[in-house]
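The authors assume throughout that readers already know how a fold can be written as discrete tokens. Each protein is reduced to its one-letter sequence and a matching series of backbone shape codes. I therefore recommend that a typical entry be quoted early in the introduction. For illustration, here is how one protein appears when written out as sequence plus structure tokens:
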Amino acid sequence: METRERPPAVALITGGARRIGAGLARALHAAGMNVIVHYRASGADARALVAELNRARADSACALRANLLSLDQLQRLAEQALARWGRLDALINNASSYYATPLHTLSESAFDELVGTNLKAPLFLAQACAEALRKTRGAIVNLSDLYARKPLKARAPYCAAKAGLEAMTRVLALELAPEVRVNAVAPSAILWPSDDSLSAAERRQTLSRLPLGALGGEDSVAGAVLYLLSPAAAFVTGSVLTVDGGEGLL
């Protein structure tokens, strides 16, 4: 009797072209998943990453562009992601904006961007992907932040948006159960800024406040996401897994 090989699970990763997002794409791909790398402005990075993954395993990765602040483009992203391999098993809401917004200079446009990328987009993308995820009994993992629960000076919209993201995670875990599990990962010091804006002294100061004494690196976040997508986490939903080197204990 002929047996059909089960098709690979498919994951959509927002902001998947660089840094933590690229680390997630590589880790999920190495675990056997097909990956859809979403990007907005990092087209060259996304195409290079997809080419790398397809060299390792043919027809296993693709890149899709969308501005997540546009609900029309967000809906189209969900449709294109589902159409690529005919299924969707995981949505990783990783894309994020992050910058200082002191109260005396805070603008409405900065508020809208920070809340839009960190809260609004994950909510409406979850809405757009919900039906497909129900069919595969899939999962959503939202990338939160330690600072959803710990105040960070001059970043009120960002912290508020991430706090909202964690609340949204718990609500959607109830609303999409039992077919779809919804969890979050809350990192802290994972990678140094890509623009080398921190001096050596500032880096030493950052490490000194981490009980584990080192940055987590991309693999620490990828490992947490892989766990939450795995059968080992089949009874885990509505949870926030903190990956912060112990910083939240201080």
Notes: The first strand starts at residue 10 and ends at 13. The beta strands are 10-13, 34-39, 61-65, 90-93, 139-143, 181-187, 240-243.
